[in-house]
Design a protein that fits this description.
Blueprint (H helix, E strand, L loop, with lengths): L2 H6 L4 E5 L5 H10 L3 E5 L3 H8 L10 H9 L3 E3 L10 E4 L14 H10 L8 E4 L7 H12 L9 E4 L18 E5 L2 H12 L5 E3 L3 H32 L3 H8 L23 H10 L6 H27 L8 E5 L14 H11 L3 E5 L23 H5 L3 E4 L8 H7 L3 E3 L11 E3 L1
Parallel strand pairs: 1-2, 1-4, 2-3, 4-5, 5-6, 7-8, 9-10, 9-11, 11-12, 12-13
Antiparallel strand pairs: 6-7
Amino acid sequence: MGVVEKLKSCEAVVGIIGLGYVGLPLMLQYSKHNYKVIGFDIDKEKSDKLNSGESYIEHISSDEIGNAVKAGFLATTDFSKIKEVDAIIIAVPTPINEYKEPNLSYIESTLEAILPHLREGQVVSLESTTYPGTTNEVLRPRIEEKGFRLGENFFLIFSPEREDPGNPHFTTRTIPKVVGGETSRCLEVGIALYEGIIDKVVPVSSTKAAEMTKVLENTHRAINIGLVNELKIVADKMGIDIYEVIDAASTKPFGFTAYYPGPGIGGHCIPVDPFYLTWKAREFGLHTRFIEIAGEINDYMPEYVVNKTLLALNEREKPAKGSNILVLGIAYKKNVDDVRESPSINIMEKLISLGANVSYSDPHVESFPSMRKHHLDLESVPLSKESLRRFDAVILTTAHDRFDYSLIEKESNLIIDTRGKFDKRLKNIVRA
């Protein structure tokens, strides 16, 4: 039986490399549709938790993981098991370095781990967001060096992840899946890989087109967020409420899409993905000015928030040094527990460097997590009348639904509001 037939009959074994915010939802979808799934991760602690039916991501329940384990799901750090699967989905991080250049080390180390165990008839799908050409230039040569003939006895595709944690309106199944293949036969296999678990599969002409699709999606958001962040600064100087303006503009039934300002941008996509395109464009002698300008504006926003905080404290005759400051929300977006690239953390570190005593409160992040670039030994502060009054300033950076905004507004001495949640007419409210 060929791989397409195995995939369509749910007899294929699916391997997912990277068991995080992308890999786990995919695993659950395949498991629910009666595929046997083997999950691969370099973190043994993660694998052990999953095999015991325990979730480590807030919006994925342990019951869901437990049901998948009962259905045959296995998590492992043993990459020799790659030979047991028919489809290999790679969902590993693709960060940027300090110079905003692509860091493909996770993809490259994954390749090194799986290459000795590949066999004929398998399909590899790269889902990690990257620059156009990665699948063709990085994965294809290494696979062909092993003697495989793409489109004949081995298949290679790119299908960008489109997860949106915390969004109740869309699920892994209902978000359309873009698929591009290295050959027409690869595309056929790629469609078969996803059409059984996703409502709508969108084929495109090549892996490069699929890669470019994801970069366009996130570049579009980064540029528009940069625009509205810049307009927030302008409106503030003019004494105009930017939120009122956005709401009024949103009444236009065509030609306008509302984007809202904030303290910066975070997550694993929007702050990172546009710079993959910027880096690749330089190979063709092109300078992506819009992307870089938007990046500069968005990168500046944490500093803008800190400056607004310092000015507000100064007006109350309080220096930053020695002030007690509470940051509300360290996740990069509301209602999730993901802190990757969160601007809240940059704000905290800037304030700490100025001598402030900084704490945080986040109902989704009980303890400050272990991160590659940030190390703060802090626990989330429970919000109460007494705890709020202890702080000289409270900075709202992530507008979680679980915050008691009436309590915060009433009991805080000073609120720096980066999300437009509080009545700006109150004396203790400063918009930032």
